[in-house]
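Our consortium's second objective concerns turning raw sequence data into structural hypotheses that experimental partners can test. To show how far this objective has progressed, the report includes one record in full. It was chosen at random from the queue rather than selected for favorable results. The single chain below, 309 residues long, was entered without modification.
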Amino acid sequence: MVKILRNIILAQYSNYKVGGPADYFCSVKNEEELFEAIHFAKKLSLAIFILGGGTNILFSDRGFRGLVIKIENKELVRKGQEIKVGAGLKFEELLNFAVNQELAGLEWAGGLPGTIGGAVRMNAGCFGSEVKDSLKEVYVFDLRSSQIKKYQNSDCAFGYRSSRFQDGQEVILSAVFQLKPGNKYFLQKIVQEKINFRKSRHPLEYPNCGSFFKNVPLVKVSEELKKRFSEKIKNDPFPVLPTAVLIAALNLQGFRVGGAKVSEKHAAFIVNDKGAKASDIFAVKEAVKEKVREAFGIELEEEVQLVGF
């Protein structure tokens, strides 16, 4: 039987370490517990929020008026060159398992935080690769029909840091990855290179949720800006202008509101520097968007999910 808790502070479930209380909160380890939690919410007409690892979420200081369901199913099964994995497993654990099983295709994700469910939901990516590149199938629970559905990769509407699962109507239960044979020691080397890169470039000493904004697709960039920042354009996995370049060009590193600031180490990161409130982080985010809009005519899109605002 799932245990429903009251007035749980959400700061402990976010990498930002901020956030007010959820009216109701529970953790679910299997489909039966998930069904029970959803039934509880529907009976009381509660809003539902599905929580994974909290590595890409900013909870408001007011918290969440409804039921937060933390997904903790951690199935991990290999069948041939496929791995079926529960949505609650950390991506790092899947990656380590694949490497030890000498299966290649995920090594680009070295150091990637978060859970499988979150990574699939946002089509997480870095170093020119994305979750969709090796994903075969996704199993979900449809909140509208109360049925379990299976989607093939082509059904998932994957885009740049997006998928069909972001409308909040389907709960990701598990995913199947199609991998290929690889050399364990070669894969370990690549993974470690990615981890080292993150450690050297990212402000990991502060509570943060990674790059706050999506990079800007080059099709949305003016010819003037393309020429000005031509050396900064990269593939991610298609041509983009990194958001950090625009923010740094405006000398916004170190810009702060209260306890939150734009990182001096990586301009796309907004970090919790000194006991920030969610409202501080939100205010920094809004100020950065406004300054980039005014200077470059570009509307930045949040990559971090905002909850309760």
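The partners drew two points from this record. The two ends are 31 Å apart (CA to CA). The CA atoms of residues 232 and 241 lie 7 Å apart. Both points have been shared with the crystallography group to help prioritize constructs.
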